[in-house]
Amino acid sequence: MVEVKNLTKFYGSIKAVDDISFTVETGEVLGFLGPNGAGKSTTMNMITGYLSSTSGTVTIDGCEILDDPIHAKSKIGYLPEIPPLYIDMTVKKYLEFMFDLKKVKLPKKEHIDEVMRLTKITEQADRIIKHLSKGYRQRVGLAQALLGNPPVIILDEPTVGLDPKQIIEIRKLIRNLGKKHTVIFSSHVLSEVSEVCDRIVVISKGKIVADAKTDELSAQVSGGEKLSLVAEGSTADITEAIKKIPAVKHVAKTGSNVDGSGRYMIEYETASDIRRDVYNAMVRIGAVILDMQSGNETLEDMFLKLTSGKYDSRKEDM
Ligand SMILES: Nc1ncnc2c1ncn2[C@@H]1O[C@H](COP(=O)(O)OP(=O)(O)OP(=O)(O)O)[C@@H](O)[C@H]1O
Fold it and tell me: Residue whose CA is closest, atom 7 of ligand 1?
């Protein structure tokens, strides 16, 4: 449905987006995650045709955005980071104005009523936009994006600046949108992307550093399971013995305790359980296990790892 291919953008000599590619399937809710300045807004603006790319292409439903902008844009509803509102208009007048501007070919009154109902702003219809709270303004921006029932909805950081209650409501709304639309939604908040989206693309310094289904991202980034071990004995003997266990991919001593025991982090293949092997190996060499805990990295750990610039999961795949 949305295909981004080798997209690059330079602002003068600054490379804001660096050769990124990904596709979004029909009905998918894709989270575009990255820290401030990663290139999210620049990418969103190129996908929606508001900004031309330096190179690369964006295709919406088979239609290239720069070749046939009118047709391609008619398939997109866009809520930019700063919603394009005319704040002296009432909500209804603004939506009527946008309806005409977008040349929507649906019954005007019914459609605007439906969009206001969906975004829960019916009761604000006759209020002037500048008198609304930020949360309600965001909903009006969202209502504007939904005019014409576009199959693709693109939302650039729609929850920034909202209070926790408003954030929960906007997230709920986005999840509902995913039932009928393909949604691309950018954020720098990992927890909200993992809560709302089917798939996450992580961008850092203009490059994609991960692209995976939300529940598979953990395995893709860590590349396996982790076991932490505290044991008493010779470091060389312990690491040697652990390395011999077939499912073990990596073992490292991470520190020493005051009682003389050592802390080790063991990385091993997903879907194996090495605890018994570790126990037997330690018994064989006469080392004593004081503590053993399995634990994967949290999504927060991964996000930091991915965006620190030291890791590129896609490079490792190649
Ligand atoms: N018009 C511009 N001219 C020059 N540099 C720009 C321009 N717009 C963005 N940049 C730079 O491009 C890079 C990416 O910016 P972009 O706004 O796309 O990131 P972002 O991920 O959306 O960040 P944020 O979450 O802070 O909005 C940044 O280094 C930014 O300073």
Answer: 11
Model confidence over 173-213: pLDDT tens digits? 888 888 889 999 998 888 788 888 989 999 999 999 889 88
Q: Which residues contact 181 (CB under 8 A, 6 or more apart)?
A: 27, 77, 150, 151, 152, 153
* ipTM of the modeled complex: 0.95
Provide the residue range defining the domain that includes 240.
225-295
Q: How many independent structural domains does the chain possess?
A: 2
Same domain, 19 and 83: yes
> Ligand 1 centroid to 207 CA: how many Å?
13
Q: What are phi and psi of 208, to 5 degrees?
A: -80, 125
The pLDDT of residue 292 is 92
As beta bridge partners, residue 264 has 229, 253
Residues 6 or more apart whose CB falls under 8 angstroms from that of 156 comprise: 40, 41, 44, 78, 79, 80, 81, 186
The protein residue whose alpha carbon is closest to atom 3 in ligand 1 is 11
pLDDT in tens, 118-155: 999 999 999 999 999 988 999 999 999 999 999 999 99
Which has the closest alpha carbon to 296: 230, 193, 225?
A: 225
Together in a domain, 252 and 178? no
Name all residues whose Cβ lies below 6 A of ligand 1.
Answer: 11, 14, 16, 34, 36-42, 188
Q: Which of 42, 51, 155, 160 to mutate to test the pocket of ligand 1 (most atoms within 8 A of CB)?
A: 42
